[in-house]
Design goal:
Layout: E1 2-5, H1 10-23, E2 27-33, E3 42-50, E4 61-65, H2 69-75, E5 79-87, H3 104-116, H4 123-132, E6 136-139, H5 142-153, H6 158-161, H7 165-177, H8 181-191, H9 196-217, E7 234-238, H10 239-249, E8 254-257, H11 264-272, E9 275-277, H12 290-296, E10 297-299, E11 301-304, H13 308-320, E12 325-330, H14 331-336, H15 338-346, E13 351-356, H16 374-379, E14 388-391, H17 395-412, E15 415-419, H18 422-425, E16 427-432, H19 498-518, E17 525-528, E18 535-539, H20 543-556, E19 561-566, E20 568-570, H21 574-581, E21 587-591, H22 597-606, E22 612-616, H23 624-636, E23 642-645
Parallel strand pairs: 4-5, 5-6, 8-11, 8-12, 12-13, 13-15, 14-15, 18-19, 18-21, 21-22, 22-23
Antiparallel strand pairs: 1-3, 2-3, 2-16, 7-16, 9-10, 14-20, 17-19
Helix pairs in contact: 1-7, 1-8, 5-9, 7-9, 8-9, 10-11, 10-17, 13-15, 20-23
Length: 649
């Protein structure tokens, strides 16, 4: 774990650590935590590495790298016995009372703990308390090391050199672990590839940190980390980026958004990669035809709108024009999109909304984790109209589900809400390369030529056996029809005729039954574990990784667990869920919200009661450790009916 004030390079340093570990073939999972202000408040990044696959974070810390006092105060007591804290001895006299950004309750609790142990409320005191708990303390004189690096590169400004403090903390961590120095330097150079001089100076800082650690602490830390042979080429990506890459590959050509955390990162990535080399080669001939260029590139227009109402209606306009279109937002923005969703439902317009769930209600916890928007996604908008709600559980699923969202939207000519909660959006992980051969484009009944128009008018909303009608892009010859928010006939003309109303409602709503019958179960639900397990877990979204990791530990303890992960929440995979739960011995719902929203939907659809709930709503994601502890307690029969998880700083 590494922490510091927001804007001080915490993300950069964690990225270097993760890339260096991934470069050595290790599996990596990273968790990013930050406040909703721009700069100044505390942020931290936890990176977990392993020789084997990992999918989640843990609560205990093996190594805490710090370069300022607040990280020491906040996290020193999270470090496990035999773990390590790296810090700058210049911080020793810093007092807890002089760190205004630590919340009053946290400061009071820490004051009490230090006083109870007869220790001063300063950095010396908290480090002594950690030492008494068996933690190794490693002072690293950052400024002395930086001055030596500055001499090598002709840089005398200490303020300029201090920009490398975070890199020094990372390098000192790797040096204590005995990790390959060259892999760390390579990661540093990649991080600063656009500024090679800065990269080389930071690489020198890595060398200096390794030299200091060898001379001062060589072999003193018991945990060692080394590279392994990776099984195959892999990616190291962040959740927002996987969605963005998939959108271009899926043929999305219009993305709209209004800035909001954590959704904006996806649109900003698309803005930075508005033309993406799909085969890695630029055209040899500058005069090459546009069609040939488009074979080599994915191209997308990204529009920052004045608000979320404009964002969703712009995207709907793109859908009417025959362009694959999407918008991305979070809870408060999605609230503003509700009326636009109804318009798309009434006019059978395909549009994809990527909904990044975060803590609510209102502005809530803008940069924290929660799964509180599931019910709203199912019902947003007045009246009744079809929509599909798809929820991804890990970074690989976010990629392939993004493509599916566009396919579903165009096949059924309806809005698709793709839910990606913040714990996924801001997670970094290593994974197998995406298989683009798995990406198939289904544009549904999109027609470019019309042969059955009457006086140039087209029966856009004519009833069909499937409920899905041919859809011409705006401007198609012979394809004139009307669009309105009111009820309409087959041409789009407004009418309040009751017979027509019945026909149109049944046409639109029948698409849900069609999707329910057509979409394969493997795209709607995942099932893990033995069919006759002691405990059956039901969940959705980002809890997947923590549940799977906890299942491995529970198996080692002789407790068998299976897991239903619901991915397509609407239409709900009722029959398959009923089949699995009919043989379950004990059913446990696990969700990051207060009320257990998926479990409520499950009971509505199946009438099957759930024995116990495990919930979390403090704004921090679930760890595999706390899920392990909760399920173990439930299996032993010592848990309350509702277990509330509270870990996380």
């Amino acid at each position: 774990m590494i922490g510091g004030a927001q804007g001080s390079g915490v993300d950069t340093s964690a990225g270097i650590f993760a890339r260096a570990a991934a470069g050595g073939g290790l599996s990596v999972f990273g968790k990013r935590e930050y406040y909703s202000n721009i700069k100044g408040e505390h942020s931290y990044f936890q990176v977990r590495v392993s020789k084997t696959e990992i999918r989640s974070h843990v609560d205990t810390v093996d190594m805490l790298a710090t370069f300022e006092e607040e990280t020491i105060f906040r996290h020193a007591l999270e470090v496990r016995p035999e773990g390590a804290i790296i810090y700058d001895p210049d911080q020793d006299p810093k007092r807890l009372a002089d760190v205004p950004t630590i919340e009053r309750d946290a400061r009071s609790a820490l004051d009490d703990e230090l006083a109870k142990n007869g220790l001063s409320a300063d950095v010396r005191g908290i480090l002594e308390l950690a030492r008494r708990r068996g933690v190794h303390i490693y002072p690293v004189p950052y400024n002395d090391i930086l001055k030596k690096v500055g001499e090598q590169h002709g840089e005398t400004s200490l303020s300029a050199l201090q920009r490398m403090l975070n890199v020094l903390a990372v390098a000192a961590s790797f040096a204590l672990l005995g990790y390959d120095e060259e892999l760390v330097k390579e990661a540093v150079r990649k991080q600063f590839k656009s500024k090679p001089k800065v990269g080389e100076m930071n690489a020198s800082a890595v060398a200096a940190a390794y030299e200091f650690a060898r001379e001062k602490y060589d072999g003193s830390f018991g945990i060692k980390l080394g590279p392994v042979d990776a099984p195959a080429a892999r990616l190291f990506v962040r959740g927002n980026s996987t969605v963005a890459i998939a959108k271009e590959l899926a043929g999305c050509r219009l993305q709209t958004y209004y800035p909001i955390t954590p959704a904006s990162d996806e649109s900003e990535y698309l803005e930075a990669h508005a033309e993406m080399e799909l085969d890695g080669r630029a055209p040899e001939n500058p005069q090459v035809a546009e069609a040939q260029v488009m074979q080599k590139k994915g191209s997308i227009a990204v529009v920052q709108s004045e608000d979320e109402i404009a964002a969703v209606t712009m995207a709907i306009g793109g859908g009417i024009a025959g362009v694959r279109s999407s918008t991305s937002t979070s809870g408060p923005g999605f609230s503003l999109m509700a009326e636009g969703l109804g318009y798309a439902g009434m006019n059978e317009v395909p549009v994809v909304v990527t909904l990044y769930s975060r803590g609510g209600p209102s502005t809530g916890l803008p940069t924290r984790h929660e799964q509180g928007d599931l019910r709203f996604a199912l019902h947003a908008g007045h009246g009744e109209f079809p929509r599909l709600v798809l929820a991804s559980g890990d970074l690989e699923e976010t990629f392939y589900d993004t493509v599916r969202a566009f396919n579903y939207s165009e096949r059924y000519q309806t809005p698709v809400i793709h839910m990606v909660d913040k714990a996924l959006a801001n997670s970094d992980a290593t994974m197998a390369m995406f298989d683009v051969n798995k990406v198939k484009i289904d544009r549904g009944l999109l027609v470019k030529t019309i042969t059955d128009s009457v006086n140039g008018e087209f029966s856009r909303f004519s009833p069909t056996n499937s409920g899905v009608s041919p859809r011409p892009p705006l401007g198609t010859k012979g394809g004139v029809y009307w669009l309105t928010g009111d009820e309409h006939d087959h041409l789009g003309h407004i009418t309040e005729d009751p017979t027509n109303r019945n026909m149109m409602m049944e046409k639109r709503m029948g698409k849900i039954d069609l999707a329910d019958s057509e979409i394969p179960i493997e795209e709607r639900l995942n099932f893990f574990g033995p069919p006759d397990a002691d405990v059956t877990v039901v969940s959705w979204g980002s809890t997947k990784g923590a549940i799977l990791d906890a299942m491995g530990w529970l198996k080692d303890d002789g407790i068998s667990v299976n897991f239903i992960q619901v991915r397509l929440v609407h239409p709900f995979p009722t029959q398959r869920v009923k089949e699995i739960l009919s043989r379950a011995k004990k059913i446990v719902g696990i969700e990051m919200n207060y009320s257990g929203q998926l479990i409520g939907i499950l009971r509505e659809r199946t009438c099957i009661p759930v024995d116990q709930m495990v919930v979390k709503y403090n704004g921090r994601p679930m760890s595999c450790e706390e899920i392990y502890d909760a399920v173990k307690m439930i299996h032993a029969g010592t848990a309350p009916k509702r277990v509330v998880l509270n870990r996380g700083a």
